[in-house]
Design a protein that fits this description.
alpha+beta; 5-stranded antiparallel β-sheet; 10 helices; 23% helix; 20% strand
Length: 334
């Protein structure tokens, strides 16, 4: 996390397969003043390219290699980097937490905690920091739900003893993406995304989403594990993080890219205004709809092979053919 805003460049870290520590992959520079709009540039570090276990951040847009990659799309932020940053809810919490006014795209990447989706990290130092080892416990759900309600209502966060700790509790999970209030919590089984209901909800989002995930699993689709918890008379949906694997040495992280990144699209639909069907996991279908980014917690599209996996992900929006019924839209990159 950073204390200064308005940064225009940062280092990009990655946790390589089978490891639990970050290494520096390269450097990202964002020029927000370019004549035709923001332009982003990324270059892999020579020491990273020399590693035998080096992997591409994005096997399509940011392939391993020398030279400078450029993009003017997505406000100058490469899709794979954007996937590691916060969406609507996360940005709202970060703005509330920081007390700053308008933040830049790079500010959101740098200010978000390192519980972000996937295996990337961002910082101002060439040497990456140690990954976060402590997470909210599931016992903190009621406190998190109350804080989420205050943020939704644009109420001030209480001052006094412990106020900063409470805000830090809510900050965890802001980099998970999506428009619904959420936080990352931990129990003996690993990390979960706690997805809260809102006081102004017209239907029970938590129960509907859990039912749709259960239905998808019963149909033979691969979805994230989920369960319901009741906090203060309200349901909270807990979705197991499929991009984390708990080990004695820490959490292993799976790389990921979203359906929006695969399709090179910039469109997003807020679930705050979408209809009840926006709760539908659409296990594979969400990979190629404009709602993919707001449901990355369970329906992000992954690329493991350059083309065949992408084709399978896109084909999954249609009824599967007999030989495709074992298709998996939830497979991390290996």
């Amino acid at each position: 996390m950073v204390s200064e805003f308005g940064q225009t460049e940062c280092f990009v870290y990655i946790m390589l397969p089978g490891t639990s520590e970050f290494v520096t992959a390269g450097r990202f520079v964002l020029d927000p003043t370019a004549a035709r709009g923001p332009v982003g540039r990324f270059v892999y570090g020579q020491s990273y390219l020399a590693r035998k276990d080096a992997v591409a951040i994005d096997p399509v847009e940011l392939k391993l290699g020398k030279g400078t990659f450029r993009t003017a799309a997505l406000k100058g932020v490469f899709g794979a980097l954007r996937d590691a940053g916060p969406d609507y809810w996360g940005r709202r919490v970060i703005e509330k937490h920081s007390g700053a006014g308008q933040l830049g795209e790079l500010d959101y990447l740098l200010y978000a905690p390192d519980d972000r989706a996937g295996a990337l990290g961002f910082g101002l130092n060439q040497k990456p920091p140690a990954p976060k080892r402590q997470f909210n416990q599931t016992l903190a759900l009621e406190k998190l739900q109350g804080l989420a309600d205050r943020i939704i209502a644009d109420e001030e966060i209480p001052d006094g003893a412990g106020a900063e700790q409470v805000q830090d509790l809510m900050l965890a999970g802001t980099s998970m993406g999506g428009a619904r209030p959420k936080a990352v919590v931990e129990d003996d089984d690993g990390l979960w995304i706690a997805k809260f209901t809102r006081p102004d909800d017209n239907w029970n989002h938590a129960r509907i989403e859990h039912a749709m995930l259960t239905l998808a699993r019963d149909c033979g689709l691969h979805t994230a594990e989920s369960r319901l918890a009741t906090v203060g008379g309200r349901d909270v949906l807990l979705v197991k993080r499929f991009d984390r694997q708990k080990t004695d040495q820490g959490y292993l992280r799976a790389r990921m890219v979203s359906g929006l990144t695969l399709l090179r699209t910039e469109t997003r639909i807020s679930t705050a205004t979408a209809g009840p069907m926006s709760c539908l996991p659409k296990s594979c279908a969400a990979s190629v709809t404009t709602r993919a980014a707001t449901h990355r917690s369970y329906s992000g599209a992954y690329a493991s092979t350059p083309s065949s996996r992408i084709r399978m992900t896109i084909r999954a929006t249609m009824p599967p053919l007999p030989w495709e019924r074992t298709g998996d839209c939830h497979r991390p990159m290996t």
